[in-house]
Design goal:
Strand content: 15-25%
Helix content: 40-55%
Mean pLDDT: 84
Distance between the termini: 88 Å
Shape: elongated
Strand order of the largest sheet: 1-2-9-4-7-10
Protein name: HTH araC/xylS-type domain-containing protein
Number of strands: 10
Largest sheet: 6 strands, antiparallel
Order of helices and strands: HEEEEEEEEEHEHHHHHHHHHH
Radius of gyration: 27 Å
Structural class: alpha+beta
InterPro entries: AraC-bd_2, AraC_XylS_family_regulators, Homeodomain-like_sf, HTH_AraC
Domain HTH araC/xylS-type: 166-267
Keywords: DNA-binding, Transcription, Transcription regulation
Pfam families: AraC_binding_2 (PF14525), HTH_18 (PF12833)
CATH superfamily of the largest domain: Jelly Rolls
CATH architecture of the largest domain: Sandwich
């Protein structure tokens, strides 16, 4: 369900604010329960009054005043507001960091740290009727998304094993030949923010761009040493693995391996290696003859 559907299902007077790709809604509702989970964004709910219970992904989260909880609108859930009067401010997010299944149905405090920051921002946006310009609305939306992502990341990253990085790396390896592949593309393909993607690699002492370049260079090095590909010019081998500019490839290859791609190929191909060894042998014989 989208932001409008959220306020409609809760059955109370509400408002929805557009902030680029993010929406923020405020609703007052009576005690009620609803189920769903066929489609929709993620809903990060801040409870200002009342109490709610969310069941999703085999977990049950109970939130009271000042707590936050994440619901995935695209997965089955049961949500119950149990107090006679409830007030909830919700950030409707297009993406969340990491594996969403690890983030949902976990009670997060909105009274300290990152939780207090996002709670204050959401409460302020719900009360603010200022007609911002489009660019300002987009910036506010980015602020909501980044703070929400930081909160959700800190809420589960330490306790949950990280199975996402191997999947991300496998995806990159499958698309190394696409020279237009960027960290933004990789993040979007896994429904995470680019910031979170960088954090995944940083935990392993890596950067996204450096890891991608290293994998491309290694594939090029392997192909340059393959006799079956000896008919391919060096620049074609480079282009096969995402290097569009021969000069950039040559420079990167020399930096990584201390030798130019052409020289590496000459030394690596079996025929050339045998010829070079034979030449050295003849030279030695002539020297001692």
């Amino acid at each position: 369900m989208d932001a409008e559907g959220w306020t409609r299902e809760l059955g109370g007077p509400g408002s929805v604010r557009e902030l680029g790709g993010v929406r923020v809604s405020a609703v007052r509702c009576p005690a009620l329960s609803l189920t769903g989970g066929s489609a929709g964004p993620y809903h990060l709910a801040l409870l200002l009054a009342g109490e709610l219970v969310l069941d999703q992904e085999g977990r049950s989260a109970r939130a009271g005043r000042g707590d936050l909880v994440l619901l995935d609108g695209g997965r089955p859930f049961r949500l119950a507001f149990t107090a006679p009067r409830n007030t909830v401010v919700t950030a409707h997010l297009p993406v969340v960091p990491g594996d969403p299944r690890q983030c949902v149905a976990r009670t997060l405090s909105g009274r300290e740290g990152l939780g207090a920051l996002i709670a204050g921002l959401l409460t302020g946006l719900a009360r603010d009727a200022t007609p911002y310009r489009s660019a300002e609305e987009r910036r506010l939306g980015v602020a909501v998304l980044e703070l929400s992502g930081a909160l959700l990341d800190s809420g589960h990253s330490e306790a949950v094993p990280e199975p996402l990085l191997p999947r991300v790396q496998a995806y990159v390896l499958q698309h190394l030949g696409d020279g237009r592949l960027t960290p933004d593309d990789v993040a979007a393909a896994h429904h995470i923010s680019t910031r979170y993607l960088h954090r995944l690699f940083q935990r392993q002492g890596l950067t996204v761009a450096a890891w991608i370049k290293a994998q491309r260079l290694e594939r090029c090095r392997r192909d340059l040493a393959d006799p079956r590909l000896a008919h391919l010019p060096v620049h074609v081998v480079a282009a096969r693995w995402g290097f569009a500019q021969p000069a950039d490839f040559s420079r990167a290859f020399r930096t990584a391996y201390g030798i130019s791609p052409s020289c590496f190929r000459v030394r690596s191909l079996p025929t050339n290696s045998a010829r070079a060894a034979n030449d050295r042998h003849l030279t030695a014989q002539q020297t001692h003859g």
